[in-house]
Amino acid sequence: MPDKTIDCKDCNSQFVFSESEQAFYKEKGFDNEPQRCPDCRRAKKQQRNDNRGGGRRFGNR
Ligand SMILES: [Zn+2]
After folding, report:
1. Cα 17 to averaged position of ligand 1 atoms, centre (Å)
2. How far apart are the first and last CA of the chain?
3. At 37, phi and psi to the nearest 5?
4. What was the pLDDT predicted at 61?
């Protein structure tokens, strides 16, 4: 499987979805390719962490 170049949904920059990452995704059972570059993914994750404990009941185990 060759490396893929994908346009980030958030910042429109291109990033490489590398062969090893594709293998990782497959292993995890993800059908979809990532929509965002690693930077945006990290930012999103960070955001979620910041919101933790912010009054939402969902996922509060
Ligand atoms: Zn991005």
Report:
1. 13
2. 39
3. -70, 160
4. 56
Output the pLDDT for position 8: 97
Mean pLDDT per 10-residue run, the chain (61 residues)? 94 96 94 93 90 62 56
What spacing in Å lies between the alpha carbon of 10 and ligand 1's midpoint?
A: 5
Helix (H, G, I), strand (E, B) or coil at 15: strand
Rounded distance from Cα 38 to ligand 1 centre (Å): 7
Ligand 1 center from residue 61 Cα (angstroms): 30
Cα(27) to ligand 1 centroid in Å equals 24
- The answer to whether the pTM exceeds 0.70 is no
Is the separation of the CB atoms in 17 and 28 below 8 Å? no
- Kindly list the domain boundaries of the chain, sorted by start residue: 4-51
